[in-house]
Amino acid sequence: MKGVVKYLKKYTFLIILAITFVVIQAILNLYLPDLMGDIVNKGVSRGNVDYILSVGWKMLFVTLLNVAAAIVSTYFAAKVAMGFGKDLRSHVYKKVMNFSLNEVDKYGVATLINRNTNDITQIQNVIFMMLRMVALAPVMAIGGTIMAISKSPKLTMVLLVSLPIMFVVMYFIVKYSMPLFKSMQKKLDNLNRVLRENLTGVRVIRAFAKTEYEKKRFEVANEDLTSTALKVNRIFALVFPLILLIMNFTIIFLIWIGAIQIDKGTLEVGTMMAVMQYIMQIMFSFIMISVVFIFLPRASASAERVAQVLNEKERIKDVKSPKKLEGMGKVEFKNVTFYYEGGKEPAIENANFEINPGEVVGIIGSSGSGKSTLVKLLMRFYDVTSGEILIDGVNIKELSQKDLRDMISFTPSRPVIFSGTIEENVRIGKEDATEEEIVEALKTAQAWEFVSKLPEGIKTQVSQGGTNLSGGQKQRLAIARGIVGKRKIYIFDDSFSALDFKTDAKLRKELREKLKDATKIIVSLRVATVMNADKIIVLDKGRVVGIGTHKKLMKSCEVYREIVSSQLSEEEIA
Ligand SMILES: Nc1ncnc2c1ncn2[C@@H]1O[C@H](COP(=O)(O)OP(=O)(O)OP(=O)(O)O)[C@@H](O)[C@H]1O
Ligand SMILES: [Mg+2]
């Protein structure tokens, strides 16, 4: 809990208020049996109706006060717990938003979502419970004992028998349910992960007729969670009757001892009734404390999971005084080597090359050769393991991430489409883009031909993930987003793969004209897409095996020749 408790600090005043009212509630609770004892002793047994009435009114008043105190304290406790949950969620969200891809890879999306929702709810619930019970239970237990002893020390001795029994029972409950509760969070993660994969991959699952298999996978995860939850419930199903049994035996025991004393004339009926109520209150307090003990470990497991995210060291951080760039955006890779976390082979090995401002650069290589990794390094989604990447002679680590990414437009290989209108999706690339600029970008991206045919044009809603668009349409929308703002460097990571050759060629021609002064880095598996570039970088198993124009590489680069001959016919090559 430590890692998250500090976020409670700003609620100190409200916490004090909540606890104060809880204490008032507890004291009023303790007063009621006393009054009741009086009514029986002095009113009922002596037939004094006036006394019964006056103390009766008093009891009613105390009860009303008690209810009021309970409402007020619950209100403050809820305010603290909910406010705390809200704060924590936004802290976690902000933190995750600043994660580099390293950290996102490390956790996985399912658990990050869980930690920011379910885990925080667990903590929030326990804080609410603690604010109510942590003050209520001790005051009632201690106060109840004092009151009971002051009324009849002999009767109070009953506690010496029933409390130890209660302790033993509670000890076993806490002991057995704690680990179960703790493991439930992990199982929930697993369930969410399977669910997420299945929902996002639903088309693939259908296409490969894997529905049955995936159903099983979900059922296994679901079963696992359910069986743990059932175990917990079985414990509780056993426990509550047991507790009731202990309490009822205590009462019987108490009445038995009390009756003997009343018979001897050493005890009054009202006093016995009051002590009985105190003893119930004391035992209830212990149950409340045990309940806290049961829920606390689950919440503290959740708190640990949340704190882990909050305390995650950001591996990619801005330097204290970032440098500003004035130049045109010359890119240099110097001896760059990069390993993914846990990777045995380098994804990029000793890469050396330069990209001059305004150049069109193609990056080609077989699947898995490191093309995407190379451009992700330039975006500083990951930091290089060794070597350096310079822009205008400045190491990109010395720039602010914002400046770096404001300078480069990156269109990833898999287009990401958000729910909203087409216009909103493009506008992500430039917040203050005018409608003309958006249409212009759509035209350059060859997207206008289908957007203009849509019933509401750029105001047409696209669903989350762009499921109501074709693959090529999504790509062109993503390209429009990439080019709507003015940048020094544009990167297209395999962004033309879903386009037919004609559209691909037309798009590249327009990009050349519209983004004349900017550097354009085009990653592709297709020779036709990169062969007209000013410079082509050929990658093979993470290594740069050739740099140059198509002509030059045809002569000097074996890997390039192989790629070309596998894709183009003889006359196209010539
Ligand atoms: N997040 C990651 N964690 C670990 N390894 C990764 C990660 N992403 C890629 N790799 C590995 O790095 C290597 C290069 O991957 P990369 O995505 O750069 O290839 P690529 O050339 O872009 O391939 P493609 O043409 O299929 O997109 C691959 O061997 C891949 O398995
Ligand atoms: Mg790739």
UniProtKB/TrEMBL annotation:
<keyword id="KW-0812">Transmembrane</keyword>
<dbReference type="InterPro" id="IPR003439">
    <property type="entry name" value="ABC_transporter-like_ATP-bd"/>
</dbReference>
<feature type="domain" description="ABC transporter">
    <location>
        <begin position="331"/>
        <end position="566"/>
    </location>
</feature>
<dbReference type="InterPro" id="IPR011527">
    <property type="entry name" value="ABC1_TM_dom"/>
</dbReference>
<keyword id="KW-0067">ATP-binding</keyword>
<feature type="transmembrane region" description="Helical">
    <location>
        <begin position="278"/>
        <end position="296"/>
    </location>
</feature>
<keyword id="KW-0472">Membrane</keyword>
<dbReference type="InterPro" id="IPR027417">
    <property type="entry name" value="P-loop_NTPase"/>
</dbReference>
<keyword id="KW-0547">Nucleotide-binding</keyword>
<feature type="transmembrane region" description="Helical">
    <location>
        <begin position="155"/>
        <end position="174"/>
    </location>
</feature>
<dbReference type="InterPro" id="IPR003593">
    <property type="entry name" value="AAA+_ATPase"/>
</dbReference>
<dbReference type="Pfam" id="PF00005">
    <property type="entry name" value="ABC_tran"/>
</dbReference>
<dbReference type="InterPro" id="IPR036640">
    <property type="entry name" value="ABC1_TM_sf"/>
</dbReference>
<dbReference type="InterPro" id="IPR017871">
    <property type="entry name" value="ABC_transporter-like_CS"/>
</dbReference>
<dbReference type="GO" id="GO:0005524">
    <property type="term" value="F:ATP binding"/>
</dbReference>
<feature type="transmembrane region" description="Helical">
    <location>
        <begin position="12"/>
        <end position="32"/>
    </location>
</feature>
<feature type="transmembrane region" description="Helical">
    <location>
        <begin position="52"/>
        <end position="78"/>
    </location>
</feature>
<dbReference type="Pfam" id="PF00664">
    <property type="entry name" value="ABC_membrane"/>
</dbReference>
<dbReference type="InterPro" id="IPR039421">
    <property type="entry name" value="Type_1_exporter"/>
</dbReference>
<dbReference type="GO" id="GO:0016887">
    <property type="term" value="F:ATP hydrolysis activity"/>
</dbReference>
<keyword id="KW-1133">Transmembrane helix</keyword>
<dbReference type="GO" id="GO:0015421">
    <property type="term" value="F:ABC-type oligopeptide transporter activity"/>
</dbReference>
<dbReference type="GO" id="GO:0005886">
    <property type="term" value="C:plasma membrane"/>
</dbReference>
<feature type="transmembrane region" description="Helical">
    <location>
        <begin position="235"/>
        <end position="258"/>
    </location>
</feature>
<keyword id="KW-1003">Cell membrane</keyword>
<keyword id="KW-0813">Transport</keyword>
<feature type="domain" description="ABC transmembrane type-1">
    <location>
        <begin position="16"/>
        <end position="298"/>
    </location>
</feature>
<feature type="transmembrane region" description="Helical">
    <location>
        <begin position="126"/>
        <end position="149"/>
    </location>
</feature>
<protein>
    <submittedName>
        <fullName>ABC transporter ATP-binding protein</fullName>
    </submittedName>
</protein>
